[in-house]
C-alpha cells in the first residue's frame, strides 16, 4: 500500500517536471520568435508591414466574421471618383478635436494654432484612437494615415481617413443618428468661432460690417428677473426646431422692446445677438421703397440671425396706408403695412429658420394693434426708468461696489420720488466719477432729490415732436 502511494507520487512529480521543461522550451522558442518578428519589423518597409497587416486583418474577417463583435465605418478624406473633398471628413476632424475630456486623458496629441488670436487646439496623432459615447453607446474613432508608395519622396500618396468602430448590436443607435450628431456639433463650433456680423440695407441688398459690440446680459441694467426671463426664453427657442416643425410653425421668435429713450433697447439687442451668437440685420425702412424690396431683403437673411426694426412708431412716412378705401394691400409698388406684417409672420417669414424679429419703440401706444396681435410679437419687454435693482447693477459695473452706506437712503428716495432717471443718465454720472465711488453715489442721490429731471424734459420734448405728426400717423394705424 505504501509502495503504491510512493509510486503515484513519483509519477506526478515526473509529469510536472516534464510539463515544466516543455513550457520552458516553448517560452524560449516564443522569445526567439518575438526577436525574429522585432528584427523583421525593423527590416521590412513600413508600407509592406501595413500591407501585411491589412491582408491578415481582411483574411481574419473573411474566415471568422462572426468572431469580431465590432463593425467599422470609414470616413475618407477623398472619395474615389469624386474630385471634391469629403465634407464629412472635415466635420469628423473638428468633432474629434472638440472631445476635450477624452483628449485631456490622452498621452499622444497634436497641437496647432491657425491664427495668433486663436487658442491652441488639440487633436489626435496619426494612427491613434480615441473613445466617445453617444446616448450611452460607446464608440471609437481612429485617425488612420496610410502611405501609398514612397510618399515621403513625392513618389506616392497619403491616404487619410477616420474609422468609426462600434458594436454591431449598436448599429441602429449610430447610423445615422450619431453621424448627424457629429455634423451638428461641427456646425455649432463653426458658428461659434465665426466673426459676428451686422448688416444694413441699401435698397434691395445688404451691406456687411463686423459686429464687435461688448454688451452682455451681465452688463445690462435691467429690472429684477427680466434678464433671466429673456435668457430662458432664448434657450427654449434655440432648442425648439422639432417643436416648431411638429406644430406647423415657422421657427422664429418676435420681441417688442418698448420704453423711454436711454433705457437700453439697443444694448439689449446686442446682448441677445451675443448670447445667441447670431448676426444682426438692421432694417432701415427709409431705404425700402416697396414690398418686393422687403421680400428680397428677407430671403437674403441667413439663419441664426436677429432682424431689427427700430423706432417702429416713427415709420409712418415710410409705410403707406393700405387700409384706405381703394388701396391695394398686395401692391408691390409701395411699402405697405400689410407687406410689413407679411414680413413678420406671413408666408414670406418662413423663408429661413432660427431667426429673431425685434421691433423697438419709445411709445407702445402709438403702434397699430395689428402689430401687437398674438403670434407677431411673442414677448413685450418693457425697459423703463432706472430701478434700485438696476442701479445696483450699474454701480457694480461702473464703480466696482456691491454695497455702500448711502444705498439705503437712495433706495428710499427712488421708491418715493416722482423723479425718473434713465439707466443711460445714471451710467454717465457713474462714469464721470468712476475713481471716486462716494462722489458718484452722491451725484446719483442728488439727481433723484431734485424736482426737475433733464431726462424727463427731453422725453416730453420728444413726445411733443411726435404729437405734431399724430394726424398722419393716426391715418396709418387707425
Automatic annotation (TrEMBL):
Gene Ontology molecular function terms on file: ATP binding; ATP hydrolysis activity
InterPro entries tied to this protein: AAA+_ATPase, AAA_N_dom, At3g28540-like_C, ATPase_AAA_core, Mitochondrial_chaperone_BCS1, P-loop_NTPase
Taxonomic superkingdom: Eukaryota
Cofactor(s) for this UniProt protein: Mg(2+)
GO BP term, example: response to stress
UniProt keyword annotations, A-Z: Chloroplast, Magnesium, Plastid
Catalytic activity reported: ATP + H2O = ADP + phosphate + H(+)
All residue ranges annotated as the AAA+ ATPase domain in the record: 251-387
Keyword ATP-binding in annotation: no
Family assignment from sequence similarity: Belongs to the AAA ATPase family. BCS1 subfamily.
This protein's name: AAA+ ATPase domain-containing protein
Organism: Ceratopteris richardii (Triangle waterfern)
Amino acid at each position: 500500500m505504501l509502495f503504491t502511494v510512493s509510486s503515484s507520487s513519483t509519477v506526478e512529480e515526473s509529469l510536472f517536471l516534464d510539463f515544466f521543461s516543455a513550457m520552458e522550451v516553448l517560452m524560449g522558442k516564443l522569445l526567439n520568435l518575438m526577436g525574429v518578428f522585432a528584427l523583421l519589423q525593423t527590416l521590412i518597409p513600413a508600407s509592406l508591414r501595413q500591407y501585411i497587416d491589412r491582408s491578415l486583418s481582411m483574411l481574419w474577417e473573411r474566415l471568422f466574421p462572426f468572431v469580431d463583435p465590432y463593425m467599422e465605418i470609414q470616413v475618407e478624406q477623398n472619395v474615389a471618383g469624386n474630385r471634391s473633398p469629403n465634407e464629412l471628413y472635415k466635420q469628423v476632424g473638428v468633432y474629434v478635436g472638440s472631445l476635450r475630456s477624452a483628449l485631456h486623458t490622452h498621452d499622444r496629441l497634436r497641437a496647432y494654432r491657425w491664427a495668433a488670436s486663436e487658442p491652441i487646439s488639440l487633436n489626435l496623432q496619426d494612427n491613434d484612437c480615441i473613445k466617445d459615447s453617444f446616448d450611452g453607446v460607446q464608440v471609437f474613432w481612429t485617425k488612420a494615415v496610410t502611405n501609398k508608395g514612397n510618399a515621403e519622396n513625392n513618389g506616392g500618396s497619403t491616404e487619410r481617413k477616420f474609422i468609426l468602430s462600434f458594436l454591431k448590436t449598436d448599429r441602429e443607435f449610430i447610423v445615422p443618428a450619431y453621424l448627424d450628431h457629429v455634423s451638428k456639433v461641427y456646425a455649432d463650433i463653426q458658428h461659434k468661432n465665426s466673426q459676428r456680423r451686422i448688416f444694413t440695407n441699401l435698397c434691395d441688398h445688404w451691406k456687411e460690417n463686423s459686429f464687435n459690440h461688448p454688451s452682455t446680459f451681465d452688463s445690462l441694467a435691467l429690472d429684477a428677473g427680466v434678464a433671466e426671463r429673456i435668457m430662458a426664453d432664448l434657450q427654449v427657442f434655440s432648442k425648439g426646431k422639432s417643436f416648431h416643425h411638429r406644430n406647423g410653425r415657422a421657427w422664429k421668435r418676435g420681441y417688442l422692446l418698448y420704453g423711454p429713450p436711454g433705457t437700453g433697447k439697443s444694448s439689449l439687442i446686442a446682448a441677445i445677438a451675443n448670447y445667441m451668437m447670431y448676426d444682426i440685420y438692421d432694417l432701415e425702412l427709409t431705404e425700402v421703397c416697396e414690398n418686393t424690396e422687403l421680400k428680397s431683403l428677407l430671403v437674403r437673411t441667413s439663419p441664426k440671425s436677429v432682424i431689427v426694426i427700430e423706432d417702429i412708431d416713427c415709420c409712418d412716412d415710410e409705410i403707406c396706408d393700405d387700409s384706405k378705401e381703394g388701396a391695394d394691400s398686395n401692391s408691390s409698388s409701395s411699402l405697405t403695412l400689410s407687406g410689413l406684417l407679411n414680413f413678420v409672420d406671413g408666408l414670406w417669414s418662413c423663408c429661413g429658420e432660427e431667426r429673431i424679429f425685434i421691433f423697438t419703440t419709445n411709445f407702445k401706444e402709438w403702434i397699430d394693434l395689428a402689430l401687437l396681435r398674438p403670434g407677431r410679437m411673442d414677448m413685450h419687454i418693457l425697459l423703463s426708468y432706472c430701478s434700485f435693482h438696476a442701479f445696483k447693477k450699474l454701480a457694480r459695473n461702473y464703480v466696482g461696489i456691491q454695497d455702500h452706506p448711502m444705498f439705503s437712503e437712495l433706495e428710499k428716495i427712488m421708491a418715493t420720488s416722482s423723479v425718473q432717471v434713465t439707466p443711460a443718465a445714471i451710467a454717465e454720472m457713474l462714469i464721470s466719477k468712476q475713481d471716486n465711488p462716494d462722489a458718484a453715489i452722491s451725484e446719483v442721490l442728488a439727481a433723484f432729490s431734485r424736482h426737475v429731471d433733464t431726462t424727463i424734459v427731453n422725453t416730453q420734448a420728444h413726445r411733443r415732436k411726435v404729437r405734431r405728426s399724430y394726424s398722419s400717423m393716426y391715418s396709418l394705424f387707425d
